[in-house]
Design brief:
Strand content: 25-35%
Structural class: alpha/beta
Shape: globular
Strand order of the largest sheet: 6-5-4-3-2-1-14
Number of strands: 14
Number of helices: 7
Largest sheet: 7 strands, mixed
Distance between the termini: 5 Å
Radius of gyration: 17 Å
Order of helices and strands: EEEHEHHEHEEEEEHEHEHEE
Length: 240
């Protein structure tokens, strides 16, 4: 499995980073973990196109995590020869919210073969060779936010999405090949987000073979040499 960090940043583009979008690629399928507004630009800078993406897993319905989907749709409508649908999965409300965004951004857009599916927490889903499990994390006072455990090419990846510390991460990370975790602040906690202090305190409880941090705030980026974990950046590539 190839892992390409197309976007590793937060809503504020701290450090000039793209919004969240991480591409998992095998010979058979391309899977995006989130699709922030800068995803189309990032794909093309990496020599890729939306046609390299078959599935999008949306962690939650904040614009910096799904706002790139309308851009992919208009690209595929006018410039692509896509022969199979791009499948978008996310928490309850995904289908309605993304359709509303499409109509707002590009009224009357028709033709892009996209399929939108709301999926329940804890349901293991198979799409061809891809298997994934959405699990609830702690990001909304109301509404639903997911992390995902993904299995592809005999490898496993856990993506936290945006979340405060939750023991769900302990439950999902044992023996996974890669844990991709948000780290919005270094020490002072932000509401419903993870700090480096939280992660460092729970480090021994996380069972992943390798951990990379994303969604970093300015204070995290400024202390990148002091972090207990690796900090991903736009363009980071990993072979699992």
């Amino acid at each position: 499995m190839h892992v390409v960090f197309l976007g590793s940043g937060n809503a504020f583009a701290s450090g000039g980073r793209n919004h969240m979008a991480i591409l998992l690629r095998s010979h058979e399928v391309g899977v995006l973990l989130d699709c922030g507004p800068t995803t189309l630009v990032a794909l093309k800078r990496e020599g890729l196109t939306p046609s390299d993406v078959d599935v999008v897993l949306v962690s939650h319905l904040h614009g910096d995590h799904f706002g790139g989907i309308p851009m992919l749709a208009v690209h595929e409508r006018h410039l692509s020869q896509r022969r199979k649908p791009l499948q978008v999965f996310g928490p309850p409300g995904t289908r309605a919210t993304v359709n509303s965004a499409l109509e707002l951004f590009y009224p009357g857009l028709d033709g892009p073969p996209f399929e939108y599916t709301d999926v329940p927490s804890g349901a293991e889903i198979e799409v061809g060779v891809l298997r994934f499990l959405p699990f609830e994390v702690d990001h909304f006072s109301s509404g639903t936010a997911y992390g995902y455990r993904v299995e592809l090419d005999g490898k496993s990846v856990v993506f936290s999405g945006d979340t405060a510390w939750t023991d769900a991460l302990v439950d999902q990370t044992p023996n996974v090949d890669l844990f991709i975790c948000e780290c919005s602040s270094y020490e002072a906690p932000l509401p419903k987000h993870m700090s480096h202090t939280d992660l460092k305190r729970n480090r021994a409880r996380l069972g992943a073979k390798r951990t990379l941090l994303v969604h970093a705030g300015e204070d995290v980026i400024a202390r990148k040499d002091q972090l207990a974990f690796e900090l991903a950046h736009d363009g980071t590539r990993i072979e699992l």
